[in-house]
């Protein structure tokens, strides 16, 4: 009887399983929809508005932390934020970076309150500006800043930086990274230029997508324990202020906005990025935080963004306090939420929460809009796996800042360095050379890293790791202390002992002048003049007068004007902001152990009032009086070897709409050293209904060749590559002649 019963149960189970197998499993998206709907149905108005509220850690922290010390949270402040105000997100650091163990303690304490002491146990989503590595976790792997990463033109390195950053941010217990910056850097005065991928939409789009996939994974499965949600910023047009000052107005025609500033965001949205942060300023008199057109019609209806939108720091209250488009703080909240902001980075109080609860109760903001915003936030929290485990995964600590990761950061630093000038092959330097090192960036790691490094401004040298070499230390290690002398010469804007530096130069074979900028970020980095400060120019002049050859090394976040010293320096090296490994990489390049391969992702201007960019119009290059005449052009960068280009061929000379076009070119290393070359393909629409650019970058490949080696390189041009924004502000492809150019070679084809 027992066997018969067992047999019956087995058959019943098999039948049930067969029936279950026949039922199609629900798509993950549908399951998420049901989970979000179930949560929303249980939530009060206050709980929903709380999810839309983000405060900085200062609001819940004890305020007695010394720089570099352990950060403690205030339990009562924390409970007040999460239980009374139902806050759904916290961000930032209070002061300076924390250890990974401190982060674990902070995140654990926060999630203990959120997931154990609240009614619905909804976890907090913590956000951080990890813009060049996990820069707010002590001893993390720190990469070059974005402008320097763009100088590598290496897509795989860009993706790898995202992967490593994701791992180390998630290892810190944080699931959300406020990066990549997809603003297009077309205003060189702007103090956040170094956070961009440069002036070209194609280069920025390709690098941005690679980084998003590094952060989120190829399948955007951010629930994996070593992935984080990306945040595209600062949507839209933030980087083009007419004054060059941070958070000041931009005036951008719709045509230009769509042609230059939309593509990098569009491609990253298509790549699956989960969140977007809003431009802090305004376009054509309309603050983006209050623009339904930018945040809903363009972003969601046209570009197809599905994730959630977070404001930037205090920018909703700024609609009232600064921008004067709202008569009251309460109306500022109404405008922003109805425009399309889902989460407010308040960040220092609970005013947004109070105002929005009132607005909902009085009917000025519809509950449907609240449910829409909160649903988007909850969905990302679910996708991140926070409802399953909101706590740090301590196993990830085992690979935190591994030697392999550090090696990738070093390789990125090496490839980011751009050799701008090398007259008579002054570089590389023989190891036996007697070298004088001088200048304000020689001994400062801050000048190699810039803002968002350990602290917001990145300028507290005392907090930088002692096991990373500045430029002077790296040169001493590479060439031997006995061969290297050092005299400061100047600070950034103040002379110290220029005469002593000139005297020391007389005893040296070559002088490495380390010029550039101190670290800065955002508004404190505003300047009125791109010219290199006079103190540094005076140092160059004094050293030049000694007759000794000069190597000028530029460590800077934007291109400072060097017109008056270019002819005095046989060799010029641009390092931009190469990160913690930058000193080592620079020394390796100077010594010839690394062959420089970086290319400029920006036009390096020659004059303070000439910001003509590489993709200028024909009218901007019509005569000697009207010409593209930069100090160094976009895409420029020398090598210790030489390359030749030949046999540029087009698969067809006539194509039809929708057809692809294959382009081939042969590259040969004609020098005596192995080296990498960035092959750049440019396209010109020779006649168009909107005045065309003289050329636009449409493809690039980074190729490594041994001496004497050659290879054929192929590109495929698609219909989108031939398009431009037409007079109706929509993409259009027009029949006619197009020119393909690679280096000094060009061919013309006809689109019928």
Commentary on this structure:
- With about 750 residues, the chain is of the alpha/beta class.
- The protein folds into three domains: about 30-400, Glycoside hydrolase, family 3, N-terminal domain (TIM Barrel); about 415-610, Glycoside hydrolase family 3 C-terminal domain (Rossmann fold, 3-Layer(aba) Sandwich), CATH 3.40.50.1700; about 645-750, Immunoglobulins (Immunoglobulin-like), CATH 2.60.40.
- The strands form six sheets. It has an eight-stranded parallel sheet. The chain has a six-stranded mixed sheet with strand order 11-16-15-14-12-13, with helices on both faces. The chain has a five-stranded mixed sheet with strand order 18-26-25-20-21, with no helix packed on it.
- Strand 23 (about 725) and strand 24 form a beta hairpin.
- Helix 8 (about 200-215) runs parallel beside helix 10 (about 265-270) and helix 16 (about 405-415) packs across helix 22.
- The N and C termini lie far apart (about 85 Å).
- Residues about 1-20 have low confidence and may be disordered.
Distance between the termini: 84 Å
CATH topology name of the largest domain? TIM Barrel
- Which range best describes the helical content: under 10%, 10-25%, 25-40%, 40-55%, 55-70% or over 70%? 25-40%
Task: Please tell me what the overall shape is.
Answer: globular
Number of strands: 26
- What is the alpha-carbon Rg in Å? 28 Å
What is the tally of helical segments?
A: 22
Biggest sheet: strands side by side, in what order?
9-6-5-4-3-2-1-10
What is the SS-derived class? alpha/beta
């Amino acid at each position: 009887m027992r066997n018969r019963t067992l047999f019956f149960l087995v058959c019943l189970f098999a039948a049930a399983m067969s029936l279950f197998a026949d039922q199609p499993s629900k798509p993950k998206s549908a399951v998420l929809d049901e989970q979000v709907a179930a949560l929303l149905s249980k939530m009060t108005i206050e709980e929903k508005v709380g999810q839309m509220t983000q405060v900085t850690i200062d609001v819940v922290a004890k305020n007695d932390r010394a720089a570099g010390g352990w950060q403690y949270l205030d339990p009562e402040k924390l409970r007040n934020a999460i239980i009374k105000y139902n806050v759904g997100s916290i961000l930032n650091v209070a002061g300076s970076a924390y250890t990974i163990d401190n982060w674990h303690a902070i995140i654990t304490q926060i999630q203990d309150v959120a997931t154990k002491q609240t009614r619905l146990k909804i976890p907090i989503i913590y956000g951080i500006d990890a813009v060049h590595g996990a820069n707010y976790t002590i001893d993390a792997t720190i990469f070059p800043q974005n402008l320097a990463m763009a100088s590598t033109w290496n897509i795989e390195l860009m993706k790898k930086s995202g992967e490593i950053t994701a791992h180390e941010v998630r290892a810190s217990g944080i699931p959300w990274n406020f990066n990549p910056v997809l603003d297009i850097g077309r205003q060189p005065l702007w103090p956040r230029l170094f956070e961009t991928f440069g002036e070209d939409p194609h280069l920025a789009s390709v690098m941005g997508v690679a980084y998003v996939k590094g952060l989120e994974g190829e399948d955007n499965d951010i629930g994996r324990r070593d992935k984080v949600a990306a945040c595209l910023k600062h949507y839209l047009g933030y980087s083009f202020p007419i004054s060059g000052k941070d958070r000041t107005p931009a005036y951008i025609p719709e045509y230009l906005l769509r042609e230059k500033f939309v593509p990098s965001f569009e491609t990253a949205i298509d790549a699956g990025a989960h969140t977007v942060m809003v431009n802090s300023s305004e376009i054509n008199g309309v603050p983006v935080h209050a623009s339904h057109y930018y945040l809903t019609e363009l972003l969601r209806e046209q570009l197809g963004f599905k994730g959630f939108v977070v404001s930037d720091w205090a920018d909703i209250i700024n609609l009232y306090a600064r921008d004067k488009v709202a008569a009251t703080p309460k109306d500022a909240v109404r405008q922003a939420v109805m425009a399309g902001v889902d989460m407010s980075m308040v960040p220092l109080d609970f005013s947004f929460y109070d105002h929005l609860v009132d607005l909902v109760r009085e009917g000025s903001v519809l509950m449907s809009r609240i449910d829409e915003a909160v649903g988007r936030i909850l969905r990302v929290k679910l996708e991140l796996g926070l409802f399953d485990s909101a706590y740090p995964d301590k196993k990830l600590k085992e690979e935190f800042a591994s030697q392999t990761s550090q090696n990738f950061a070093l390789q990125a630093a090496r490839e980011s360095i751009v050799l701008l000038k090398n007259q008579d092959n002054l570089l590389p330097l023989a190891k036996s050379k007697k070298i004088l090192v001088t200048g304000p960036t020689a001994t400062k790691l801050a000048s190699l890293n810039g803002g968002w490094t350990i602290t917001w401004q990145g300028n507290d040298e005392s907090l930088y790791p002692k096991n990373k070499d500045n430029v002077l230390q790296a040169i001493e290690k590479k060439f031997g202390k006995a061969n290297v002398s050092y005299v400061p010469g100047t600070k950034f804007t103040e002379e110290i002992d220029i005469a002593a530096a000139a005297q020391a130069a007389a005893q040296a074979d070559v002088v490495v002048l380390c010029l550039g900028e101190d670290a800065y970020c955002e508004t404190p980095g505003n300047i009125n003049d791109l010219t290199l400060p006079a103190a540094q120019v005076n140092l160059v002049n004094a050293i030049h007068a000694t007759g000794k050859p000069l190597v000028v090394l530029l460590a800077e976040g934007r291109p400072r004007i060097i017109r008056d010293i270019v002819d005095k320096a046989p060799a010029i090296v641009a390092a931009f902001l190469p990160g913690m490994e930058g000193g080592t990489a620079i020394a390796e390049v100077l010594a010839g152990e690394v062959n420089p391969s970086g290319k400029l992702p920006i036009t390096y201007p020659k004059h303070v009032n000439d910001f003509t960019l590489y993709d200028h119009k024909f009218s901007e290059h019509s005569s000697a009086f009207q010409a593209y005449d930069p100090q160094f052009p976009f895409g420029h960068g020398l090598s210790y070897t030489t390359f030749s280009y030949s046999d540029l061929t087009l698969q067809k000379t006539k194509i039809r709409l929708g057809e692809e076009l294959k382009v081939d070119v042969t590259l040969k290393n004609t020098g005596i050293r192995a080296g990498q070359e960035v092959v750049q393909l440019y396209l010109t629409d020779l006649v168009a209904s909107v005045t065309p650019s003289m050329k636009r970058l449409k493809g690039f490949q980074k190729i490594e060749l041994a001496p004497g080696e050659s290879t054929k390189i192929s590109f495929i041009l698609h219909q989108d590559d031939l398009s431009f924004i037409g007079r109706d502000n929509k993409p259009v492809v027009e029949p006619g002649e197009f020119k393909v150019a690679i280096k000094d070679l060009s061919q013309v084809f006809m689109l019928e």
